[in-house]
Write a structure and sequence with these properties.
With about 250 residues, the protein is an alpha/beta fold. It contains 8 helices and 7 strands, in the order E-H-E-H-E-H-E-H-E-H-E-H-H-H-E.
Length: about 250
């Protein structure tokens, strides 16, 4: 076991892709992980795989009642939280011309509102020297046609994490952003308008990465474990890019 052994974590959006890799890696480090997700079958599969290391809670972070159920479970266990990974998020392509109010509300409701209140509602449970990690996106710093709402939502939470790092420093709580580049996940493939176009989309994303490939969810999980560990105890307010150099290209 590592320096995270016997810690307690919350990972939102932890049933697939990057979130699942983070939850799995933390559990392997001896952490008890509360995992949220909207899809019951995927949540049950993760719990079946990881056993007692995980508490699965079905819920949508954009629903404050669901968040209250999550933190009621945290309170019942009575160990507080050492790590919060605000990972749940998503988005779809829509140009300014095609964008609907529902598209906007759905994306900002999850990526921004959901993230803000995930962290706010965690505050009473954060143990001394707790770590909060926000999942960002390289899209926040570049212009991708038809991806404006998603990009803006990720830019918003990056700024929130900067502010929170200052606000929570007096409590010894660190807040950082981990920013994946294109990563081989169901969520990325799902941006293709047709299933048979998914491979072409992934290949196109890989071509933009200087290292010449997509990231793997496990590589993002490695960065989250580092930011959550005592090895990063003097790191707060930062943005750690795990993107194969994409943001520098």
């Amino acid at each position: 076991m590592t320096q995270l052994n016997a810690k307690t974590a919350l990972v939102t959006g932890g049933t697939s892709g990057i979130g699942r890799a983070i939850a799995t890696r933390l559990a392997s480090e001896g952490v008890h992980v509360f995992v949220t997700g909207r899809r019951r079958a995927q949540l049950d599969a993760l719990v079946a795989e990881l056993g007692d290391a995980v508490t699965g809670i079905r819920g949508d972070i954009s629903d404050l009642d669901d968040l209250d159920r999550v933190y009621a479970a945290v309170a019942e266990r009575g160990q507080g939280l050492d790590i919060v990974v605000a990972n749940a998020g998503g988005g779809t392509f829509a140009t300014l011309e095609d964008l609907s109010p529902q598209d906007f509300d759905d994306t900002f409701g999850t990526n921004v509102r959901g993230t803000v209140f995930t962290v706010q509602k965690a505050l009473p449970f954060l143990n001394p020297e707790a770590s909060v990690v926000i999942t960002g996106s390289t899209s926040a710093a570049r212009a991708t046609p038809a991806f404006g709402v998603y990009s803006a939502s990720k830019a918003a939470i990056r700024q929130f994490s900067r502010v929170w790092a200052i606000e929570l420093a007096g409590r010894g709580v660190r807040v950082n952003t981990v920013t994946p580049g294109p990563t081989e996940t169901p969520g990325l493939a799902g941006l293709a308008t047709e299933p048979d176009q998914a491979r072409a989309l992934l290949d196109n994303e890989a071509r933009r990465v200087p290292l010449g490939r997509l990231g793997q969810p496990s590589e993002i999980a490695d960065a989250v474990v580092f930011l959550s560990s005592p090895q990063a105890k003097f790191i707060t307010g930062t943005e750690l890019f795990v993107d194969g150099g994409e943001s520098q290209a």
